[in-house]
Write a structure and sequence with these properties.
single chain; mainly alpha
Length: 227
Amino acid sequence: MNIPTGFDHIEMLEALAVKTRQESIAVEMEQPTELKMIGTSLSALYQAATCHQKCHGGPHILEALSGRTYNLGVSAYILITRGFYDEALNLVRSLGEISNLITLSVVDKAGIREWLSSDKKTRMKKFSPAQVRRALERQGRHLMLADGDWYSRFCETYTHVTPETKPNVHNDAGLPYVGGVYQEDGLRNSLGELATALGVIALMVSKYVGLEELFDELSSIVDTAER
């Protein structure tokens, strides 16, 4: 069979995306807690980013971070439902970095003030992902999502290229796949990771900006998941 080229290849991608989405729906519906967390978190982040209920003024740094988080979260969800699990989890790694930075703003007010006024050189030296993790560890970890083990796992498996890199291996047989192909393990794992990352960020953001009803709803979802 010849692999199509040009516009025909684009049409093939569209058809495969529809097929993979359809194959994903049944298993996706078996994870209602994760879907509720993702949907509610995205709603909170969207409202915070757009000052939907109230504008708090100022430089809108948290609002911008919320907007970036929302876009990353939506993109990751779409990739998951199209079978691009490695690529989605790469975006989840970025969510982990944002989560740690927002957590730092909670536990180290002086540190976050320095970040807000820092230039590029200072940010590279003092506020790299590794430095932010170390700063949180000194504070006792708290709501720290992307600790060293978490971050290393995501970097080695889904982000950095190594001699052992294989695309989208999310099955017991260890088979790699090129393109978006439905894999049950990939879907379940990726949705869980995305729900956790978005949930941690949305809880902090909704508390920060006074979205109390959404904060309570998110807390209720966490309680359900822990039972």
